[in-house]
Amino acid sequence: MSGEPPDSGPSSSGKSGGVLSLRGLEKRFGGLVALEGVSFDVREAEIVGLIGPNGSGKTTLINIVTGLFPPTRGTVRLGDIDITGIQAARVARSGIGRTFQGIRLFNHLTVLQNVLVTASVAGAHASAAGWQERARSALGKLGLGHLAYRFAGSLPYGDQRRCEIARALALEPRYVLVDEPFAGMSADESDALIAQLRQVRTTYECGLLVVDHDLRVIHDLCERVVVLNEGQKIAEGRPDDVYADPSVIEAYVGEKAAAQFASSTSKAPGDGHDGANPEGGEIR
Ligand SMILES: Nc1ncnc2c1ncn2[C@@H]1O[C@H](COP(=O)(O)OP(=O)(O)O)[C@@H](O)[C@H]1O
Ligand SMILES: [Mg+2]
């Protein structure tokens, strides 16, 4: 049946397989068109990068897919199930996990408790021991097992981002959408996270949609890249091909010139990070 994702499946988790398919996505905030006619697929166990200048609609796209708000137009399908506009919790139970651009952990819960939250939501039918196993396994995949009893808010930035990924993995998802997971990381930390995300894909056999500004990281991690500019898809393909595309270069060079102009005329330059505005972006 189309249009109704399962709340819980007949056998186990109720998760749907198949391609994550976005068609004709449009999002208007009043007069502002944040997304316009965006279509692409993420296939099972595929790692796709989503890049684009600040404000190009990347976070909005993740928010639509994960049910934070509905699109103005267009559809989101998971396999043959239409999940457009369904509630965020049901999207999660359908097998789509996410992280947030501005980290949203329960700071006064432990790392393990943060991950148990999704383990229990996703596996409401399972036992508490089952939730523990699921949560600890997810923590292990991100190298966080030794931090299980630390308060999430006390962790360094990079570990908090990894904790958010572990929390998404505790859903045992078909897809995980990660919004700027490499922000604020050194090159070494980024390389470690690349290796962990590859391992995640192999272990969970899940597709990943990775939003980031670090073009080197996206190149090294992703099999395919989609580029947004001013809400529209301007390129899609293999990283090397996309990076050589004149329209992509123009979009990035244009932004860099604007950022340089802004910093040369402003007395209050930004810090280059995103914590202050979780759903906004930053100029880099
Ligand atoms: N909840 C919202 N209300 C109004 N405007 C929004 C909202 N979320 C995003 N926008 C606007 O939509 C555009 C795209 O934003 P966003 O998706 O955050 O871009 P990106 O993640 O690519 O930096 C921006 O102009 C932003 O200001
Ligand atoms: Mg964003």
In N-to-C order, the SSE pattern is EEEHEEHEHHHEHEHEEHH
Gyration radius (Cα, Å) is 18 Å
Shape: globular
Head-to-tail CA distance between termini: 45 Å
Say what the CATH topology is.
Rossmann fold
Summarize the main sheet: 6 strands, mixed
CATH architecture: 3-Layer(aba) Sandwich
What's the overall average pLDDT, rounded? 85
Q: Which percent range fits the helix content?
A: 25-40%
Helix-strand category: alpha/beta
State the name of the first-level CATH class: Alpha Beta
> Got a strand count?
10
CATH homologous group name: P-loop containing nucleotide triphosphate hydrolases
What's the number of domains? 1
Strand line-up of the largest beta sheet = 6-7-8-3-9-10
Contiguous runs where pLDDT drops below 50 for at least 5 residues: 1-13, 267-284
> Which molecules are bound in this entry?
adenosine-5'-diphosphate, magnesium ion
- Strand fraction equals 15-25%
How many helices in DSSP terms? 9
